[in-house]
User: What shape does this take?
Amino acid sequence: MGGVRFRLLGALEVNRDGTSFDVPRPRLRAALAFLLLNADRPVGTERLVDALWGEHPPRTARNQVHTVVSTLRQALPPEAAELLRSDPAGYRLAVDPDSVDVRQFARGVAAARALAADGAPVEAARALRTALDLWRGEALAGIDAPFAGPVRTRLAEERFAALELLADAELAAGRHHPLVPELTALLREFPDREGIAARLATALHRSGRPADALAVLRDTRTLLADEYGLDPGRALLDAEAAVLRGEDAAGGATGSAGTVAAAPQPPAPAGPPSDPGPPSYPRPAQLPQASHGFVGRRAELDRLSGLAAGTGPAGTPGDNGPRTALVVGPAGIGKTAFAVRWAHCATATGAFPDGQLFVDLHGYDANECETAPRVLERFLLALGVPGHRIPEDPVLREDLYRSTVAGRRLLVVLDNAQDYEQVRPLLPGTAESFTLVTSRGRLGRLVAQTGAVPLRLGVLPPAEAVAVLAELAGPELVRAAPGAAAELADLCGGLPLALRISAVRLVEEPELPIGELAGELAPEQDRLAGLGLFGDDLTVSGALSHSYRRLAPEQARLFRLVSLHPGASVPAGAAAALLEPAGTPLSAGAPAPARRLLRTLEDVHLLERSAAEPGHYAMHDLVRLYGRQLAAAAGTDCGTEAGAEAAVALDRLAEWYIAHADAAYRILDPKRLRPPTELQLGWSGPEPFADSDGAQQWFVQESDNLLALTRLGVAHGRHRAVWQLALLHFTHLMRSHRLGLLAEVQRLGEEAALALGHRLAAATLANNRGIAYAIRRDRAAAGHLERAIAGYEEIGEHGGAARARLNLGNMHYEFRELERAAHYQEGAVATARATGDDALLYPSLQNLALVRNEQGRHADARDLLVEAVAVSERIGTEHAVADSRVKLAWVLQRLGEHQRAFELCEASLAVARRFGDLLMVGRAIDQMGTARISQGRSAEAREHWEEAIRVFSGIGSVEAETVRRRMAEHFS
Assistant: This one.
């Protein structure tokens, strides 16, 4: 996108070729920053509302978003403004993500990691310094919006990780002397970072300064003990041992893979300083022991500290209301470990001088679920109330509890809560105390009634997941087999419970190599069985079962059926369709009853609303396997005789996708000859897509699901569904240039059509396979196209045969066999003119023109393409018009009409992007570069060609190399 660059690693900047553009108002800057963080991805209006206003937006927030976006367009450079587009899901800032410094930084760090892994530390260090130089100060400086704080924290952590990686690279390169002052300054800035202290000690030790190295380690140990009450982690211990033994700690900072997350900044006391004298009442200390091997969660720990200190939404200084935070997440995500870890750190700072109350409410265990009156009795006894003074009446007991804790600065941890009614009586009534609740449920009523601030825990990122294994099973094990450790962490899905069980198995079964355990868990049918401990009831399945058992029958049925969906995310409409009886007409959306059921599964974290895809739900991999296990146990597996319910569900799912794909296909490619889709069901209301934007967006979102469903259909013999899904997927896969998948899907479709004896479908799919191979310049295309021609001729489908011959001509053109190509294309033009088939005529004219252009008959080629444009306009297909114009521009370049060629490509580019035709996008940009170089505007030409190379490389097109050669000719 020209020379426009966006900078977020510091104050927000918009810069074009050295000129800065001012974005005048704070909310505009916040909106732009959020859109840039989601560059070239749809951002829903509701997400923008949440980002800009948080949990309490004004009633006019949605309208204000539209105003903000409109004003933002006016403030941006024209090139950027035109890329801020309305999207079916909200808005999309369709800039190249690489024009945003956050993305550049991430790519630079990723490249450095790869270089380091390949044994190139000098190059890795150079790449890291280039990436770190992008930082100009605190990320998102001056952006004051709810989303900014967590993002700022995350980016700061990523910067710090890059600094540690830089230190490792410099140590590996033997550059320890110049590293000492850098790490000294860094440790002064971040004195509680064990990883930096360990690396500085290593650098000092290698520089011949062991006494200084030990002093650094001693000071860091003292700080951690005095400030946070923490013992040193493995990084410090290993570094100290290396210095004391006089060993050279080669290979980077010891133990860096398993560094335990540094303690959060402690919360400041919420109220005025207490009287220094000892209290006259007991100070309970009920926190359980903190879990060993806690890793990561730095941003969440810091946020919770801010809430407890009164600097976040949970309460502010001077607020006399109760203060509550709610930690939520699915079973096994580590809510209790997180809460206890934070509580110990906070207590060690003296933030809660009057003690801590802790209770496991067993909210999801029907046999052990605690009642509020029973917990109140325990709490009151711990607070010094004699047993004979505790009333039997629950209301009086609650009143006594609140009176007793009033004025005390207590931490109350209510772990594993079931619902609001279980928690409500246990909440202190005044602001001096802080309550931390954990639950698998979202407890929306608690949030609404008390102002509790929810804090959701997600799965651990890959590096932290591996670090859990290193902490619990030993870093030597991970260092010895890093690839197997990463695979094992991936199979655990970043779920802390699964990671802990795996680590314990490695410790208890020393003869079991980490790679062998990963191999045991790799088959889906064996994974949950392997995530358990012998002689212990600690299993992933057991943890999930507590959530499942609380579901009503219809909720449980939906959970089982949704788990059978083969894709990574499930559209709400598809999930709703699974519940309907066979033969029920389809709906474009999800009816209200289905939405309510989906929300109940979301409330207990068996489903998660997809942040990346509005209107979709996702399941953790292990949760999905658990659901399928339940489906099989209930006799609903498609592979069993008793699998009637699941079989109907699979057919229903296929019908939903076929109907939606058919509706989208008819908008995106209405003139392409294809067999009619055999729709079994009608629509209960309007069809789902009003225009090409909506249809294209649907294919972008659902392409992977279509592929997964096609493969599932093959596995279960659903031939009718398979050939239709393959056929309807063709245009999207071709335009997005996913040629390997295109060939595979069309093969599966052709085999399914042949199994049914559907000759028209089989011929069409053979033709499509030929197109996929021809675009790849693979001569195997000829066999598929000749088979298609024969198949069409056998059933008298002469239009189809003509199209297959045209595609055979295109294959010969790709190999520059121009006479043979012209033979087929002239025949296609003649057939189209004779039959009045405009849908065949315009591509025939296009492709014959390309042959004439290569033959040096540029004027003839121009005339053919001018006619192709006219025919495309007559058909009324916007994509065909744009395609014809880009090809016309190619010929006009040969005739010296460079400005007209540029204008045609510029006009066609937006259409190509909207339809997702990445090959056309690359070709249009390439031609724009050619026009500019011919006009002597070499800087612009370079930018266009570099962008074209990025597009072509992104789709694996050989045309990237053609553009590179052209650039080398002009800029060498």
User: Anything to note?
Assistant: The chain has 43 helices and 14 strands. The mean pLDDT is 83. Residues 554 and 597 are 8 Å apart (CA to CA).
